[in-house]
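Cont'd.
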Amino acid sequence: MATIRDVSKIAGVSVATVSRTLSKPDKVSEKTRKLVNDAIKQTNYKPDILARNFRTRKSSTIVVLVPDIANPFFSRVIRGIEQTAQRLGYAVLLGDTQGLREREITYANMVYTSQADGIIQLDCHIPFEDKNDCTSPIVNACDCVRGSNMPTVQLDNVAAAKEMAKHIISLGHTDIGIISGPENSTITNDRLRGFKQSLEEAGLSYNPANRMFGDYSLPSGAMAASDLLSKPIPPTAIMCMNDEMAIGAIRQAKKMGFSVPDDISVTGFDDISFAEFFDPPLTTISQPAEEFGSNAMEMLFDLINNKEPESKNILLPFNLVIRESTGNKK
Amino acid sequence: MATIRDVSKIAGVSVATVSRTLSKPDKVSEKTRKLVNDAIKQTNYKPDILARNFRTRKSSTIVVLVPDIANPFFSRVIRGIEQTAQRLGYAVLLGDTQGLREREITYANMVYTSQADGIIQLDCHIPFEDKNDCTSPIVNACDCVRGSNMPTVQLDNVAAAKEMAKHIISLGHTDIGIISGPENSTITNDRLRGFKQSLEEAGLSYNPANRMFGDYSLPSGAMAASDLLSKPIPPTAIMCMNDEMAIGAIRQAKKMGFSVPDDISVTGFDDISFAEFFDPPLTTISQPAEEFGSNAMEMLFDLINNKEPESKNILLPFNLVIRESTGNKK
DNA sequence: CTGAAAGCGCTTACAG
DNA sequence: CTGAAAGCGCTTACAG
């Protein structure tokens, strides 16, 4: 591979001039610029970005910590990150953490080792050994740590769950099951809170026995639904904290001979592409997945470059999408 | 941040010795080793990997070119890549190309600029300006370019499609629609070939009017099915080239009043997690998605390190999974 | 086993 | 507008 030195020799100028021609062409005379560009073409020179990054002390790379890349919602978030990163001149390193603290720390350490300039964390953990030492540029998106000083991009999960519960209650349901995510997730807690608020406003009481735990996967939704529907008097509606669990729940309900929504209404969350194509199409909360990514990346860009972001706590809009998996209580 | 120089001063040794303590501790006396390690702890020294990479002329990073990261099959492949890369000491850069040649080239160029040591391409394109100049370490996985000299990891798509078609034919279907991927894809062509082979072996003729084109998305499957089922005499079975299109097709069939599989059998390909939970559960071909990734990464590792890979053309096993979306012709 | 020294390919004040 | 020179933080022959 040709280096900047090879180019400078052929062009008959110094390496500084070649460098300048590349980075600040207006600071170079037209004549010299042509000389250099010709030499670049002749040698098929490509600047060594690794050397440049090393010299300028920035990697122009960010690392994204994602608990599960195969989750369709996160995939879309990452797509949003990648597109914006590309536009802003950053490369994206993939850190599939499986939610493991050890892997989160390993990947987050890349900032200390100059391999990355910043971090986007999609899980509700602080990915540092010392939780008080969040000195790295980091944005916490999607499921966010409550009360940390990390900047966030999130949904108003309380309000969204509240609106969903309200919709269910408006259909006449009073005995409502809930399939929630794992207990230590901020998203889970917020959505549960919204659910409870709607119950309360409707004068209904929250029955902890109606709450089942899943892990956001299809089978976990099916298992939870099985428990709920095996009760002597099963609930007439189930609110699920994501679409996968809702799809698993509906599948299980059908298997057990329940009709959806005639016997039981089921709702999801996220509005993944499959939601609309499922039978019945899922009533759910749509979220602008790509925007989580693009907003997080833009904010991180400001943080890395010591600009004050417009906002350090972005709340993205949601939308209740009513389809056919919910119906009036019979 | 502390540098290797800071550590060396505190430990009272040369930087070379600090470097050695890190990379070849057995070449350093126990006493010195302790001195150095203490100094490392005291200064909280973290080696600058960017500098190390620059110095050793390798980035320990690979870039993966994926047409669509939100595709559930590719997500799993990438998960396999990431896990194996991590194990082998490589970081993974994400190149969401949207199938665009321009973006493929941009990302593939990272090898020339020292930002990456190798490439995994998941699409059937040669991602270089000059298609004959595949000098970069590259592995072509999933949808592979036919007749290029890039090493490959793929499925025997001809055999898989053949087996699927055989299954459909064995149920008595003779008028079979096919919803295929885009025309220029190797996967598409191979699967079509397998389909035709089974027809031929069964003495059936291939009817080009029964072939619809999709783009592997849910809506495209629905649209294609709509065309197929609007025919005066619609086919009694539809073979789809992936699960999303099959799910879209079933959804559309149901909308149009067809029962699946009673009126029409529908098959998918990939066995994504939703396939099993759909109604009816999808008859499909399962592929070991993560293994595409791990095999590709292992092969790329050998290529990067100038070891001869065990095989340069890996064929992964598939499995016909018969569920309830296929049934006997009535 | 250890250290002095060269050097990886760039960028960037500085001087002219 | 241009060049000489320093230097980013490491690694690695080489010599002892």
